[in-house]
Automatic annotation (TrEMBL):
Pfam families: Ribosomal_S30AE
UniProt cross-references to InterPro entries, sorted A to Z: RHF-like (IPR036567), RHF/RaiA (IPR003489)
Taxonomic classification: Bacteria, Pseudomonadati, Bacteroidota, Cytophagia, Cytophagales
Annotated source species: Cyclobacterium lianum
Name under which the protein is recorded: Putative sigma-54 modulation protein
Length: 103
């Protein structure tokens, strides 16, 4: 499932393989953008992807996020079991990168 939306002037593009993005996950993505916006006001696009690597008992969930800002974009990815905690971990990684860029 893929979907695109405009949230507070930021283009969000979400891609997922064999996964439906429900309203609660969409809200978590918006919350992540709100958190990132505290560290830079120049976000023009956010790409989020959800995928599963492997199969059966060895399957691992992967969440990645690219934040489009002037200059080089920031990107983070995390692997684990559950989508929402992974999304929060990715957001925290991106916050650290944005803080470094501001220094």
């Amino acid at each position: 499932m893929n979907y695109t939306e405009n949230y507070k002037g930021i283009k969000i593009d979400v891609q997922s393989v064999h996964l439906d993005i429900n309203e609660s996950t969409q809200q978590e993505i918006r919350s992540a953008i709100d958190k990132l916006s505290k560290f830079t006001h120049d976000i023009n696009a956010v790409d989020v992807y959800f995928k599963t690597e492997g199969s059966g008992g060895t399957a691992v969930s992967v969440v990645g996020m690219r934040v489009g800002i002037p200059g080089p974009d920031v990107f983070a990815e995390e692997k684990g079991e559950h989508w929402i905690p992974l999304l929060k971990d990715v957001t925290d990684k991106l916050v650290r990168q944005l803080k470094k860029l501001r220094q």
